[in-house]
Amino acid sequence: MPFSVKVNDHPKVAPPAQLPAWQTRALRRSLEGARARTVERMERFVQAARSLANESGNAAFTVPQLASSAGLSLKSFYRCFRGKDELLLALLEDDSEIGAEMLREAVDAHDEPVARLRAYFDAVFGMVALPGAAGYAGVLVREHRRLSEDFPDELRGALAPMVDLLAREITRASDAGLARRGDAARDAETIFGLLLSAIHDVTMGRGDPTEVASYAWGFCWAGMRGEASPIEPTAHANTRANVDTPEHLEKRST
After folding, report:
1. pLDDT at 214
2. How far is residue 208 CA from its own chain's centroid?
3. What is the CATH number of the domain that holds 132?
4. How would you class 235 by CB atoms within 10 Å of its CB: exposed for 0-12, middle for 13-18, buried for 19 or more?
């Protein structure tokens, strides 16, 4: 042969935009099936994490334990999540959606803005005592600070359903002239952080849910209402304060 020609036996594949309609449909069906299988695996991992957390009241389980509980492989886990923390965020997000719906039902049983806010507080602590809620509460209060440092945006998004509901109720009370007008979103985040500390006491057995809820409500409502009683300085404080007043300094200089 005077020359040779290299023949490519592989069929030419068109770019996605140029695929025939039948190939596009086949690929769509394949991707939909793969997506459905991935979602099903993720839900099994989240459910297994919820079960393990409920058993221990914390997130001390390992990824191999989680995979075993879910009946799936470690390879499957890392196809769904980058690590355990991402799974914990998924669990918090999933349960926060459920919790927000429960809180909304409790709040909507009332019309008056202050009663709605009080119902939110009571319902938060009521949820802690529900069967199956120990795991969520334990993960939330024990992992919140660490996750807020490493994944602040993700954690904020995971807890948004419950925090946003509180912000809306604060705004409702403010619009009715019953609470001070401020940054409702920031107020809600601050109050929710305080509630987490109180929930931690309850989960550790250091307080009764009803009593702690009542105290937390009184403390937070005083701040939301914006009223405070003047604090009378003690005799020691008066003596100490006089040392730094201009009048006292003037007397000392004469």
Report:
1. 94
2. 23
3. 1.10.357.10
4. exposed
